[in-house]
Amino acid sequence: MTALRTTLVDTATSGKARLASDRWRGAPYLLPALIFLGLFFLAPLIGLLLRGILEPTPGLSNYAQLFANSAYSKVLFNTFAVAGLVTLISLLLAFPLAWAITLVPRGWGRALLGIVLLSMWTSLLARTYSWLVLLQASGVINKVLMAFGVIDQPLEMVHNLTGVVIGMTYIMIPFIVLPLQATMSAIDPMVLQAGSICGASPWRNFFRVFIPLCRPGIFSGALMVFVMSLGYYVTPALLGGAQNMMLPEFIVQQVQSFLNWGVASAAAALLIVITLALFYVYLKLQPESPAASATAR
Amino acid sequence: MLLSANAMGPRLRFGLFTVNAVIAAFLLLPILFIVLLSFGSSQWLVFPPPGWTFKWYEQFFSNAQWMQSAFVSLKVALLTTVFATVLGLPTAFALVRGKFPGRDLLYALFTLPMIVPLVIIAVATYALFLKFGYTGTLTAFVISHVIVALPFTIISIINSLKLFDQSIEDAAVICGASRWQAILKVTFPAIRPGLVAGGLFAFLVSWDEVVLSIMMASPGLQTLPVKMWTTLRQDLTPVIAVASTLLIALSILIMLVAALLRRRAELKG
């Protein structure tokens, strides 16, 4: 078949013209999208990054401010603390889900997968609104806890970091379940059986055999969630408080309220560099990276 | 035994089942809650509601602002779908069939809008549109949405193109069709599931987009999520629950259509 295709191409494009055009075969079809992204995505992005070192005066003063100003560095700390905490909790909650889906691919495993997908596909704003109502002082969760006598006073679970962590964890769970489940279903059950035949207790088998085998899925899922959490705006902005901002909210506030493009751009540059660096690590962890699968035919 | 439900000890099995039931409830709770609230009669979102009513739905559908923002959302989402598909189609063809230097790098470039945090794309494009006085226009909405929808259409079309055996297209050429005829009559119908799925993704991305839209919106022109956002910041009225329920219903519908298409594509092999 390949030979046939080559002859076809040979007859279609003949002679000398082929040699020159062959090097860039198909490339012109990229132009429309390339021009579009260049004009509306890359150019503004580069422009934004430049503002970080050019405004108000050329130099690195914006970056210095970002780390020196205690209010700003608190934002950085919050961002990483929340992202780390969200990653950890969603990992703990996603693990049993992925496990059950792998164990029972039909039946209730399938139902669980359906619930995970439904939650992932439901409007972000709708879910965040729901948490806002659920978590408020007069909300259902506080009422139930008070009715059972667990607490006397309503807990403050919204407009602070608690609210942000709950809402973000909720959103991130599916993004760990899916890669983790893929890793688990690729594990040969025989390996675990071998572990128990060789005398490993269930606990030992779990921690020394099962968890290590799940590691690729755990790492790639956790990394993805951590990166996404760093850049989320909507949920922290609605469930968080003005006192405990995260980086994305900070960037928007600097632009919209203070027109402080210099600091906003420096913060944006920081966020992009961290995101891309972590994403690079993520790609390296993948046995078959998206870039590689695009090439493989 | 850890990967076989039957060989698992009853205690472990029961434990896993209970833990999962709780987590599943956690995942379902906000979605069910919001749907129920939209029918609850309490203005203050008391739960369980004292009574059931359609009045929030009436308020939603009779309010010109809500309806207009829903209409703007629909218009933006449809335009985004069209442009993202039209731009994505030749790109996917070139990335799969083309042979040129730096192809992997270009693929990475086209997926970049998926990776760069939305808030940064929003601020960057906002700066651009501000400079040329385009903020608060339909153009600004559509352009910014196409940026983030494009990777979805490109990846979706690439996937279906890779499944398609090009020798079928070549066979059509041997039988006398021109290359374009073969692509139009043979390849397009074969990759249609990928095209439609990509279009659905693009629609959903645009329809649900909040961050970009907040930056692009003006008081006179806003999408449904922006209207929800600005209302949310004032009070938590049940009308937002109505809007949320409608968004959820549409997401489920699109998800089902996409799943159906995938199954059909798989059956075809």
UniProtKB/TrEMBL annotation, chain A:
* Keyword Phosphoprotein belongs to the record: no
Q: Which domain of life is it from?
A: Bacteria
Please state where this protein is localized.
Cell membrane
Does the keyword section mention Membrane? Answer: yes
Membrane-topology descriptor: Multi-pass membrane protein
Q: Where is the ABC transmembrane type-1 domain?
A: 76-282
**GO CC term, one of those recorded:** plasma membrane
Matching entries from Pfam families are given as:
BPD_transp_1 (PF00528)
- Transmembrane feature ranges: 29-54, 75-101, 107-124, 131-151, 157-180, 218-239, 259-283
Q: Which SUPFAM superfamilies match?
A: MetI-like
GO BP terms: namely: transmembrane transport
What family classification does the UniProt entry report for this protein?
Belongs to the binding-protein-dependent transport system permease family. CysTW subfamily.
Q: Which PANTHER family match?
A: ABC TRANSPORTER PERMEASE PROTEIN (PTHR42929:SF5), INNER MEMBRANE ABC TRANSPORTER PERMEASE PROTEIN YDCU-RELATED-RELATED (PTHR42929)
Q: What is this protein called?
A: Spermidine/putrescine ABC transporter permease
Organism of derivation: Pseudomonas matsuisoli
UniProtKB/TrEMBL annotation, chain B:
* Alphabetically ordered keywords of this record: Cell inner membrane, Cell membrane, Membrane, Transmembrane, Transmembrane helix, Transport
Q: Tell me where in this chain the ABC transmembrane type-1 domain is found.
A: 70-258
Location of this chain's protein in the cell: Cell inner membrane; Cell membrane
CDD domains the UniProt entry points to: TM_PBP2 (cd06261)
**Which processes are annotated in GO (biological process)?**
transmembrane transport
| InterPro entries the record matches | MetI-like, MetI-like_sf
Where would you find the membrane-spanning parts of this chain?
Answer: 12-39, 76-96, 105-129, 135-158, 195-216, 236-261
Instruction: Write out the GO cellular component annotations.
Output: plasma membrane
Q: Kindly name one Pfam family recorded for this protein.
A: BPD_transp_1
Membrane topology of this protein:
Multi-pass membrane protein
Its family remark reads: Belongs to the binding-protein-dependent transport system permease family.
Q: What is this protein called?
A: Spermidine/putrescine ABC transporter permease
* Organism of this sequence: Pseudomonas matsuisoli
